[in-house]
Amino acid sequence: MATLDSKVPKGPIKDKWTDYKNKINLVNPANKRHIDVIVVGTGLAGGSAAATLAELGYNVKAFAYQDSPRRAHSIAAQGGINAAKNYQGDGDSTYRLFYDTVKGGDYRSREANVYRLAEVSANIIDQCVAQGVPFARDYGGLLDNRSFGGVLVSRTFYAKGQTGQQLLLGAYSAMNRQIARGKIEMFNRHEMLDVVIVDGKARGIIARNLITGEIERHSAHAVVVGSGGYGNVYFLSTNAMGSNATAAWKIHKKGAYFANPCYTQIHPTCIPRSGDYQSKLTLMSESLRNDGRIWVPKNIEDVTAIREGRKKPTDLSEDERDYYLERRYPAFGNLVPRDVASRAAKERCDAGYGVNATGEAVYLDFASAITRYGKEQAKIHNIENASKEKIYELGQAIVEAKYGNLFQMYEKIVDQNPYKTPMMIYPAVHYTMGGVWVDYNLMTTIPGCYCIGEANFSDHGANRLGASALMQGLADGYFVLPYTIGDYLSDDIRTGEIPTDTKEFDEAEKEVTDRINFFVNNKGTKSVDYFHKKLGKVMWNKAGMSRNAKGLEEAMSEIKAIREEFWKEVSVPGSSNEMNPELEKAGRVADFLELGELFAKDALMREESCGGHFREESAEESGPQKGEAKRNDKDFAFVAAWEYKGEPADAVLHKEELEFKDIELKQRSYK
Amino acid sequence: MNLTLKIWRQKDSKTKGQMVDYKVTDISEHMSFLEMMDVLNEQLVNSGEEPVAFDHDCREGICGMCSMYINGEAHGPDRGITTCQLHMRMFKDGDTITIEPFRAAAFPVIKDLVVDRMAFERIQQAGGYISVNTSGNTQDANSIPISKHAADEAMDAATCIGCGACVATCKNSSAMLFVGAKVSQYALLPQGQVEAADRVQNMVAQMDLEGFGNCTNTGACEVECPKGISLENIARMNRELMKANL
Amino acid sequence: MSGFFKSSIGRKVAMALSAFFLMFFLLQHFAINILSVFSADAFNEVSHFMGTNPLIQYALQPVLIFGVVFHFVMGFVLELKNKKAQGMSYAKNNGAANSSWMSRNMIWSGVAILAFIILHFIDFWFPEINTKFIQGDWSGTMEGVEGFRYHEELTHKFHSHIRTIAYVVAFIFLMLHLLHGFTSAFQSMGSTAGRKKTLQNIGKAYSIIIPLGFIFIALYHHLKYVLS
């Protein structure tokens, strides 16, 4: 079995990146003018990379399937961005951020990459402020921080509940400056459909103009993929409707290894599905769990009564409720990590205690928080013998000040007033830690092909901490890739423009057009969504929050069967030479149908529980941790990088062993 | 509920379009408006017809991609939301709903309900940025204190999602609210003030070049804006432009 | 600076500046006209002063004419540009959901006011110019009238039912135009004062009191004639 070369520089961890930067090859500014770089995806990673590369002097061609780079799904991130600034003086440091990220990732990430991420995190904040990102400030005019996701320091910078939006607009403005200068050529409403390899190096892409349907050839000296995660393999997720894995999957099929596909983050506080028509799920900030108590009825009769509308949740007395997180995890209660909270909700709903019509919802109840705050307020305001109503009113004002916008969002969607009746929540797929394997330079196993942001696998291990996704995207794009890519491109100063009229481009284009022609000509009977939903159900049921060998084996064969049916029965109306959203979806779902099977294969291979991946066979059998996830560092402390060999089931596993020199491995406990 | 939909169908930018009637049945009041459109499209695909093309992506009201004019209002009858956040409970069984693309000379129709908003891109390329290199070698983020008030006001302007509802709603197809928000965000922050004069002149010049109309101060844009961007941003832009010219 | 007035915002600023000037003129015009109700003599004295003072006649009058013409011409130019910007119109548009009728129909209230001004010019201004500048009669008197002629000329015009109705209708349009225009002019000038309660109330008071006052003057003279 081949071993992967991660190209991690030698030396102590805190000097690696500095020493490395001092020694790598650079391209002189005059030569950069003769080098082209393609960037696919314009979210935080792709957008910041495109802007920085253009600023350095490279000719950048950037591609986005949306009508503007600013619409990439990074925009939807709410909470914030971590940075080891230690502005609060609470003992934060590069090492502490590094430590928290590795531990949070359940010791399945590459130490050197994570350390570098922590190291450049402070620069991100400086950069964004200089760009005009309106981060929240305190009354002294200095930047404000909040604490987030179970770490012990306050290091999260935020811009109201729209941090992702503001950071993306910052990167977008940097792009605009370069577009205006002519250094970035922007291709909006374009989708990358294949990568072109010439003499073993990535030298261009085939893209489809989504307005005219035209197939275009674009050449470059290097290709950067920053196309985001593959959460939509589940059909329902908090990802955008258009979020897809096509770019990442195409490079995988051309030689880039795909790492740890089974690592998925399932976020516990999302608004539940209301019916089969549901197209996507909406996330509500994790902060709600600070004050909300999660429960389901104790008695199954009450569940039925609630579902049938004969009883209301508020009718149930305390004794009739099962606060299952408080029961199972007395130490952390409702504040257990995302993966634990999600699995516990699934466990109750699988046992039949789900409280809405679909059977997939639990209550998040603010009544006791409201009463608690109300009593506190009554005391502060010296109101004696306050009535129950008065207390509730006082408490409601406090809860409203803290979570008003989330409550309003919930009410708009569900049409229930969460001040009066408990909210309903259910976990939803949110982020994928797995992705294209990259080395320390962020280069994939295809020379000249890079992968950044959520699309790669490198920094979050088996689980991502809150407010770290934005950090990683911008670190890759602004501060890492622009250095490392120079090292590779320094060999290309004499190459000259890459011609597009070569046989490699001919072949790649033919492959793409053949597939498109198949779709529009196939006389199928079922819509693309039919297959996507079917795939999503299998993924959710058998490769979702908890997994076992039997289910995963079934998932592999079922996905294969769906894929075969898809290629026979899919129906795509319209033609190829026009705007055709069904055709776009067909291509993306075709790729998900392969990725899903590899996902299940990876999950089946990983016979341990770690982070977002919970294998029922690998749980603690006795002791206080009974039933909890059990990691197996002896056999599985490696990155699983899969090589494409035709059918997903035939993919070949390459292991990158993970070494932890600067951190001691520990089992997580929340009891 | 059962509904009649009157939808603008147009094959491409060159072909003439027309309103076409469709029926949808068994629509749940809990569906979002776009999920209702999904039901219609599934119905059309299954009968071999071309589905209605419409822009959408995040479906949680932040990306600014969705853009329909529903019953005579941008993003439909509810307030403070985008089309993807509009729910069917705003309608009644038996209703007829008219669905049109955002209309403005500067927003040509690409197909059905999809419009081309590249004019917004070009306006931002004309100056919607601070000319700072992304090297990371900038000064420490806390070296310039910014009053909370200014930071909050800049944030309010910056929440614009660039959907174009302001233009679609305006009887003059004016883009002043959008451009005003962009100009304001930077004008309110010390980092942005260095280039403020050039920025406002260039962005307004580009806005005029794109063929957007003038502002009659009807305030319709502010009412229909899903993010509640205030008209004060237009006043600020007017001030900034006067200042730049004096 | 010339570039500024070619921009869409510059043009709106110019509209607002001319609007402020016209609103000031209107106030002044009203102040003089209301005198006609209380005292014919006072009205005549002031009218004669205004009509013969060289500064007013040779300096302010041309400025006023320019202001009026500019406001109308620019209004139409902007309207044409806006129509062009609009492209295709909606099959269904619910303007009332988000804006006032006044704000959406400034052009139509403006056209009504223009029609009125033409009538008004025919009634008063052209004869004045003719008397003073063509015939050279600056005396302010008229055969058969004792003292100055102005009050007599004014009241005479309101003998007609139709003219009185036309004036009343025109002033209603003026009211509608002002109800939006007053605060809108502040906004165009980059002032947020127009969005504050105080100025909105002042604007409302001005927009209603002035046109109602003019209507009162017209009806007063008309009814006085009819009833006498």
From TrEMBL, chain A:
Gene3D superfamilies: FAD/NAD(P)-binding domain, Fumarate reductase/succinate dehydrogenase flavoprotein-like, C-terminal domain, Succinate dehydrogenase/fumarate reductase flavoprotein, catalytic domain
FAD-dependent oxidoreductase 2 FAD-binding domain: residues covered: 36-470
Region (Disordered): 612-632
Superkingdom: Bacteria
Protein name: Fumarate reductase/succinate dehydrogenase flavoprotein subunit
UniProt keyword annotation of Coiled coil present: no
Keyword Phosphoprotein: no
Organism: Jejuia spongiicola
InterPro entries assigned: FAD-dep_OxRdtase_2_FAD-bd (IPR003953), FAD/NAD-bd_sf (IPR036188), Fum_R/Succ_DH_flav-like_C_sf (IPR037099), Fum_Rdtase/Succ_DH_flav-like_C (IPR015939), SdhA/FrdA/AprA (IPR030664), Succ_DH/Fum_Rdt_flav_su (IPR011280), Succ_DH/fumarate_Rdtase_cat_sf (IPR027477)
Domain Fumarate reductase/succinate dehydrogenase flavoprotein-like C-terminal: 532-670
Keywords tagged on the record: Flavoprotein, Oxidoreductase
Pfam families noted in UniProt: FAD_binding_2, Succ_DH_flav_C
CC cofactor: FAD
Automatic annotation (TrEMBL), chain B:
Superkingdom per UniProt: Bacteria
Metal-binding keyword on record: yes
InterPro entries recorded: 2Fe-2S_ferredoxin-like_sf, 2Fe2S_fd_BS, 4Fe4S_Fe-S-bd, Beta-grasp_dom_sf, Helical_ferredxn, SDH/FRD_Iron-Sulfur, Succ_DH/fum_Rdtase_Fe-S, Succ_DH/fum_Rdtase_N
Domain 4Fe-4S ferredoxin-type: 151-181
Keyword Ribonucleoprotein carried by entry: no
Record SUPFAM superfamilies: 2Fe-2S ferredoxin-like, alpha-helical ferredoxin
Cofactors (names): [2Fe-2S] cluster; [3Fe-4S] cluster; [4Fe-4S] cluster
Keywords: 2Fe-2S, 4Fe-4S, Iron, Iron-sulfur, Metal-binding, Oxidoreductase
Family designation: Belongs to the succinate dehydrogenase/fumarate reductase iron-sulfur protein family.
NCBIfam families xref list: dhsB, PRK07570.1
Protein name: Succinate dehydrogenase/fumarate reductase iron-sulfur subunit
Source species: Jejuia spongiicola
